[in-house]
Structures are given as C-alpha cells and as structure tokens.
Design brief:
The protein has 480 residues and is mostly helical. It has 19 helices and eleven strands.
Length: 480
C-alpha cells in the first residue's frame, strides 16, 4: 500500500451502540491497524431530535468498553476536526454553492406535500410502491417562488451511462444513471443528507476506505456521482453482510434487545468475547473460533468477509464468553467482577484479593460474570441456607464426628489455604478409614448448603476461617 490508510467509523447516535455498528467499527479498526493506518471516529449527529449528548456518550462508552479506540475524533482532535457534522455546516454550504454555480446542483422549491402527492399518483398508476423518482420539476427553474424555502438537489447527467465500483468485499457492482434521480443533498435548514454529508466529510478528512453495511450499497452510486462532479478521487469501498437476529430478521433496535452492545456488558459478557463473537458475524479465518484482538489485527482482510448474512447465536456467544473467562488472567476478570457482586448487595471493592479466588473457583462453571457473581454470592454472606434434601442425606449422626474432627483440625491450622485444608479432609478420612467423599461432602453441605461447589479446600479458603468455622458450628448444632 502506497500510504497508510485513513479509515473512519461514522455512526448516527440514536440511543446506543448497535451491534451492527460495533462490527463495522471493528472491521474498519482492524483494517487500519493491520496496515499501520489511522482510525477516525466521526459523529453524524444531524438527526437533532435523537442525537442527544446522552446518545453520543452511549456511542463513545460502547466503543471504549470494547477497546475499539480511535486515533482521531471526539476528545482526540486531529487535522480533520471538527468531528461532529453539526459543527461542519458551513463546509456543506460552501460545496453546495460551488455545485450550483457550476450547474451541477440546483435549488428545488417543491413542497413535501407536492412530492408526496406525485409519489402517490405514480405508485397508484404503476401499482409499484417505492418506484417514484423526482421528475426534475425545478431542474431548470429560474424564478424564486415567494415564501418557499428550497432544498438543494444534485443534478444527475441527462445522457445515458452507468456508474461502477469494485467493492473490496462484494466485487464489481454497476448501476445505470437512469436508476438514479436528482437526489436531495442539503435540506432547507442547511442540514446535509447522508449521501452528501459523508462525501464532503470523507474527502476533507482524506478517508481512503469506506467500510459499512450492505444496506448502504445503493448509496454508493449517488456518492460516486458527487465525487465525479467535484473532481475528487473517491475512496475504496467495502460493504459488509447484514446481521440477523435469532428469528432471522435483520437485527434491529425495535425487535432485538441483543442489538444493544452495552446490554451484554450488563449481562456479564466480557468485551473480548463480544468482539470475538462479532468479528465472526461476517468474517472468518479458517476454522478458528477463539480469536484474540492481536490475532484479528494480524489476520483481518476483506477477502474473507462473507457475502451472506450472519445470524445471531446466543449459545455461541455464551460458549465464547466461557472460553474467555478461562483464558484471561484471573486479575483481568476480577477487575470488573466486583461491580456484579456490589449490585447483589456485597460490600466489596475492585482489587479485593478474594475476587481472583472467585474467578479461579468458578470460571470452569460460569458462562458469564453475572453467573459467576451468583455462584459466589453465598461466599460473601454470613451464614447459609441449607438444602433440605442435601441436609437429610449428609448432615447425619454418622457424619457428625467427621465434621467435628475437620472443624478442630482446621481451626488449628496456622495457614488457611486450600492445600492445607484439603490435607485436613484427607487426614480425617484416613483416620476414620472412609473415602474422602464421606468427609468432604458433609463439610460441603455444612458450609455451602448444597452438594455442588469447587474443591473442598478451595471452598473453605474462599469462605475464610471465621465464616467456615461459624457454618460448621451451625451445622453441628443442627445435627444435635
């Protein structure tokens, strides 16, 4: 590559970071990083009703949580600033005026009501909804109707022709001029429409690659015509497959809660797992399933971006999350686990050494940090509720002397750790000439309330000396 690429992600902030947007950001980020380029974040905030400061923050928070960091953009001003479209309105006016002066655009005074009426008439006559094209009513208009505002339309060439581009993911795509109409570039209030604003921004920001979803393929043709009219070299384009929900309909905010990136954070999904899952919704590297960020950067290319839609698979996401719970250093998982425990009423802070022990104890069993916190909850409470069936089977007159021996020997330990506690259970079982399960299981029920937990030494270490002895005493008192 002759020069380092400049690649952008340009979301419209309308509530939260969408999974589809996150994947677009990720693909562009990976391409930029692999080729030593620049990843730019631009906020297309022209929908003034929905593009609130809170919506912008939601985009930034989502990208930050995923670790998709931008080189230029909000908070990281660079040579192409500003990075909000509403702060670039004078630029859009400047180029619109130039195009009008050159006869390549014009002011259109048709009202919304007039356009709607003509559209309805055409659709009624043809029986084909969505086929209406603007007739060019104001194309050569010289008068200025009093009291009417005007949008600015791009003037498509009147001769026959076609526009073609070579998509880096889909290959060559062509559309005839006759399939395009004189589209609106700029609203009467100076707000750019998508096809116009993104071209002006991409050129003035020196963007070399535009990567986006396949739903934008048809937008590429009018944009290419605008590049041609302005005498600018267009960037390369890559269009990514759609993401479908579990119902195999396009993943949408309205129908699919899982479309919200930050919902997965709240559910206890790790960012490494969600990135891994999202990158595989439309891209592959052989049969590799568990892929690190470093591997993504090393391997990503557009040759292996698919052309068919990816389908949301919640079971696959949970499987990947469990792999990452086991792969990541316990300290990494523990660094955010405290939030889930605090939400359940546990008084604990990030950095507490017990958190890493929780991760080690439950990462083979839990699929999410939420599940891990649920499993660990009883280890941070005073006392425990005993399951009736487990109690009846294991807390008996026969097991009482074994529990007494474990309690006495454990209390005498100088160091309260899993290895020493396992040795106590082993020693008591040998002295009583019974299997270790005959000792460990009554202890487990006494201190956890049930028959399932990590190894008995690990369980007692996690509970701590004081709480373990308290629960053993309570169980012994119950047996009587």
């Amino acid at each position: 590559m002759a020069s380092a690429p400049r690649v952008r992600f340009a979301p419209s902030p309308t509530g939260y970071l969408h999974i589809g947007g996150a994947r677009t950001a990720l693909f562009n980020y990976l391409y930029a990083k692999r080729h030593g380029g620049v990843f730019i974040l631009r906020i297309e905030d022209t929908d003034q009703e929905r593009s609130t400061p809170e919506s912008v923050k939601a985009i930034l928070d989502g990208l930050t949580w995923l670790g998709i960091d931008w080189d230029e953009g909000p908070g990281k001003e660079g040579p192409a600033a500003p990075y909000f479209q509403t702060q670039r309105l004078e630029l859009y006016k400047q180029y619109a005026d130039q195009l009008i002066a050159e006869g390549k655009a014009y002011r259109c005074y048709c009202t919304r009501e007039e356009i709607d009426a003509r559209r309805a008439a055409v659709e009624k006559a043809t029986g084909k909804p969505g086929t209406y094209k603007y007739e060019g009513t104001c194309r050569d208009r010289k008068d200025v109707p009093e009291g009417r505002s005007a949008v600015i339309r791009f003037k498509m060439p009147s001769q026959e022709g076609e526009v073609t581009f070579n998509d880096k993911a889909l290959g060559p795509i062509t559309k005839a001029y006759s399939d395009l109409d004189d589209w609106v570039m700029l609203r009467a209030d100076g707000i750019p429409l998508y096809n116009y604003g993104c071209v002006i921004d991409d050129h003035t920001m020196d963007i070399t690659l535009v990567g986006r979803g396949q739903e934008h393929v048809n937008s590429t043709f009018p944009q290419l015509m605008l590049y041609q009219a302005l005498g600018w070299k267009p960037p390369e384009f890559a269009h990514f497959p759609l993401i479908l929900g579990p119902d195999r309909e396009k993943l949408s905010k309205r129908k699919h809660p899982e479309a919200d990136v930050m919902l997965h954070k709240r559910n206890g999904i790790l960012p490494e797992a969600l990135l891994n899952f999202v990158v595989r919704l439309g891209w592959s590297h052989g049969n590799d399933e568990v892929i690190s960020r470093e591997q993504m950067v090393e391997w990503f290319d557009f040759d292996h971006v698919g052309t068919t839609s990816g389908v949301w698979n919640p079971e696959k996401l949970l499987w990947l999350n469990q792999q990452w719970l086991k792969l990541l250093a316990p300290a990494v998982v523990a660094s955010t686990l405290a939030d889930f425990l605090v939400a359940k009423g546990v008084q604990i802070k990030a950095g507490d050494p017990r958190l890493e022990r929780v991760v080690m104890a439950f990462r083979e069993r839990a699929k999410t940090q939420q599940e891990m916190a649920d499993m660990a909850l009883k280890y941070f409470q005073h006392g425990v509720t005993l399951e009736e069936k487990a109690t009846a089977k294991h807390l008996t007159a026969e097991s009482k002397p074994l529990l007494v021996q474990v309690r006495e020997q454990a209390a005498a330990l100088a160091q309260w750790n899993a290895a020493a506690l396992d040795e106590v259970v082993k020693k008591v079982s040998e002295q009583a000439a019974v299997g270790m399960g005959k000792v460990a299981q009554p202890v487990r029920v006494a201190v956890t309330g049930g028959t399932v937990s990590p190894g008995i030494g690990e369980t007692l270490e996690l509970l701590g000396r004081e709480e373990s002895l308290h629960r053993l005493d309570a169980a012994l008192a119950r047996i009587g």
